[in-house]
Amino acid sequence: MRPDAPLLDAKDLVRRYDMRRGFLGRAVEVRAVDGVSLRIERGRTLGLVGESGCGKSTTGRLVLGMETPDQGSVSFEGQPLPSPGSAAWRAQRARMQMVYQDPLGALDRRLSIGTQVAEPLEIHRIGDRAARVQDLLRAVGLRPDQAERYPHELSGGQRQRAVLARALATEPALLVCDEPISALDVSIQAQVMNLLVDLQERFGMGILFISHDLRAVRQVSHRVAVMYLGRIVEEGEPDAILQDPAHPYARTLVSAIPHPGRRVDRIILQGDPPNPADRPSGCAFHPRCPVATALCARETPALKRRGDGRLVACHLAHRDEALPRKAA
Ligand SMILES: Nc1ncnc2c1ncn2[C@@H]1O[C@H](COP(=O)(O)OP(=O)(O)OP(=O)(O)O)[C@@H](O)[C@H]1O
Ligand code: SF4
Ligand SMILES: [Mg+2]
């Protein structure tokens, strides 16, 4: 471990899949993740936001080493990830945990909550299990006696707390939370997000928080990366992006959420959600972009830092750092 290195440093990740066109069509290769770089520091949260199919979960699996990138590299605490399945990888995996969207699916219905929270302690031979399970349940706001309960005997929010307790059992340095609140009632979502923030303050882990909900991402993240069709198109401070999104796609996401005390016109995206098998030339967003120019169809914009520190992949956002609001 190199203490001065970022907790997680992923560089230029590419992940290709074969995707079949139509029922009997031939398979074409698509880039689900197409050159994604991200960095997470200890005790900080990076929010990853974008519409369905843009590559968020694939990015999460790549940074955890659950899938191997076709190109690019992942370093954790300054060391490259060991090969999947090796003893070194298993030891490292204990320090990196995933929390999924569906807590019921993530838990085994036949086993009590206590048994499931104790499982990682057994696997990694961490002693004093009974006391540890009680501490973990308390840390996530469950009562120690709820260790005896089975998943179907808990509410959705309590189940997600149990999943978090299990993920925290090995004292991970990194948590990847893939849509951890999407399956919960709105009233419970806020509780689970507050819990994540509290747990991070207590345990100091870095978090990759994946969501399609920009409001949720803002609440828990120190930085936000907006993804479109396999690439990051904007990255910066959550408040800066929500106040004044620079990329036209980020602007559509921001326009879709309520802004108390401020009028923000909703931007309705034209065209269908993109199919990675039909990636357009130039900027992948150009067929739906309200301010696209001829250059956008020809040249792919690089993700570059602007004067205000934000990273943006858009030809116009760099030209004068202020995009036209309407179609040219
Ligand atoms: N194992 C796989 N085989 C083939 N294609 C895949 C595989 N996993 C993902 N894909 C494709 O890669 C693209 C990105 O998928 P991914 O699950 O990462 O998106 P996502 O942003 O997490 O979407 P959602 O918000 O719906 O969860 C999609 O087009 C998906 O169909
Ligand atoms: S590069 Fe062009 S098409 Fe892409 S987001 Fe910017 S203005 Fe729109
Ligand atoms: Mg997903």
Report on the structure:
The protein has 328 residues and is an alpha/beta fold. It folds into two domains: 8-95 and 172-319, Rossmann fold (3-Layer(aba) Sandwich); 102-171, no CATH class. The chain contains twelve helices and twelve strands. The strands form two sheets. An eight-stranded mixed beta sheet has the order 6-7-8-3-9-10-12-11, sandwiched between helices. β7, α7 and β8 (206-211) form a beta-alpha-beta unit. It is globular. Iron/sulfur cluster is lined by residues 247-248, 283, 285-286, 289, 291-292, 296, 301, 314-316.
What is the tally of helical segments?
12
Low-confidence stretches: none
Strand runs, count: 12
CATH homologous superfamily descriptor of the largest domain = P-loop containing nucleotide triphosphate hydrolases
CATH topology of the largest domain: Rossmann fold
β-sheet strand percentage = 15-25%
Instruction: List cofactors, ions and other ligands.
Output: adenosine-5'-triphosphate, iron/sulfur cluster, magnesium ion
What string, H for helix and E for strand, traces the elements in order? EEEHEEHEHHHHEHEHEEHHHEEH
Shape: globular
Q: Distance between termini? A: 51 Å
Which strand order do you get reading across the main beta sheet? 6-7-8-3-9-10-12-11
The biggest beta sheet, please? 8 strands, mixed
CATH class (first level) name of the largest domain: Alpha Beta
| Rg on CA atoms, Å | 21 Å
CATH architecture of the largest domain: 3-Layer(aba) Sandwich
* Relative helix content: 25-40%
